[in-house]
Amino acid sequence: MPDIHPFKKKKETTPIQKLQLLITVVSRNQGNYFTDLYEKYDVTIQSSILGKGTATSEILSYFGLAETEKIVIFSLIKENKLSELFSILQEEIKSHENGIAFTIPLTSIVGKRTYQFATKSLKKGENHHGKSATI
């Protein structure tokens, strides 16, 4: 006999979307510009670290990294947003005449709530245990 409960709500499921780790290296003064740009593409988690280049001038000029003071931005982004973002990134990095951006595919994330947070699919008002939180 099927399990029928007239008052029981069906759980809504969010389709799982693959994530990529986007790594961007640009001049320090451009860090805020790129983090703001990424927020338009549903990037929820971003972390930045300061960097200083040590490569030879030939390698720096090849990658368009003439300045040695850099910022390295790590961002989680949904795979379905990448092609649109990369077409814009290609123009932005070209217009600023320095920088590099690349992705690393993520094969797993531990924890349903962690994934929901990373993809902005954690419902408003839920805490990390899935229960309503009131403030």
What does this structure look like?
With 135 residues, the chain is α+β, with helices and mostly antiparallel strands. Helix content is 28%, strand content 24%. A four-stranded antiparallel beta sheet has the order 2-3-1-4, with helices on one face.
Briefly, what is this?
Helices cover about 30% and strands about 25% of the residues.
**What is the distance, rounded to the nearest whole angstrom, between the alpha carbons of the first and last residues?**
42 Å
What proportion strand?
15-25%
Total individual domains: 1
CATH class: Alpha Beta
Per CATH, the architecture is 2-Layer Sandwich
The poorly predicted ranges are 131-135
Largest sheet: 4 strands, antiparallel
Mean pLDDT: 78
- Would you count the extended β strands for me? 4
**Shape call:** elongated
**Helix run count:** 4
The CATH topology is Alpha-Beta Plaits
Spatially, the strands of the biggest sheet line up as 2-3-1-4
One letter per element, helices H and strands E, the order comes to EHEHEHEH
Helix content: 25-40%
What is Rg?
20 Å
